[in-house]
Amino acid sequence: MIDIKAEPFAFAAKIDQVALIVIDMQRDFAERGGFGESLGNDVSRVTRIVPEVKRLIEGFRKARLPVIHTMECHRPDLSDLPQAKRDRGNPSLRIGDEGPMGRILIVGEPGTAILPELAPIDGEVVIEKPGKGAFYATELGDILKRRGIAQLVFAGVTTEVCVQTTMREANDRGYECLLAEEATESYFPEFKTAAIAMIRAQGAIVGWTAHVDDILEAIH
Ligand code: TIU
């Protein structure tokens, strides 16, 4: 067991049971013309965390610990896309519409891809997910069980949407969750602050939060 300096108290890491899960670091959320911008957001906030996410991924790879990537995306025939999700927010481009980076959030389209700087390497699991949470309608739970993973370090976007939803799903399934503060971002700074506070409140009711440096120091 290695203690990682964290809030609200140290995270007792079992290094042979830890994985990094990088949520939805896709062009559609980080670049102009994608889904994030179609919802009216300033996507430059997401681009700014890329170096911190990269540092974390590289630290896990160097320590030979698993890195799992997720992508929010849908089938080309939209059979896994509820109409309510397609219409929500009255976006300028709906999921499945043709945008400057191809069809919005559709598997295989250029805009749906993970940012090239953070691209998965051979052997890393990539979960394609139709929901905000990564456990819903995916193999993630089975994969984690098979690999004996009990603790998840979280990075990615957006803090209060797909990251927090997945942390809550994981917490209810018995995983201990640690959010890397500099490696996650929201389109709304106040929502990131609030999400971090609510995750670690009440004695880590959903999980812990820690600085990237402290996580890397513990696993190196
Ligand atoms: N809109 C927003 O904040 N997020 C999403 O739609 N998906 C993710 O968080 N990945």
TrEMBL record:
A Pfam family that the UniProt record links to this protein: Isochorismatase
Annotated Isochorismatase-like domain residues: 19-207
Record keywords: Hydrolase
Cited Gene3D superfamilies: Isochorismatase-like
Superkingdom of origin: Bacteria
Keyword Electron transport: no
A single GO molecular function term of this UniProt record: hydrolase activity
Protein name: Nicotinamidase-related amidase
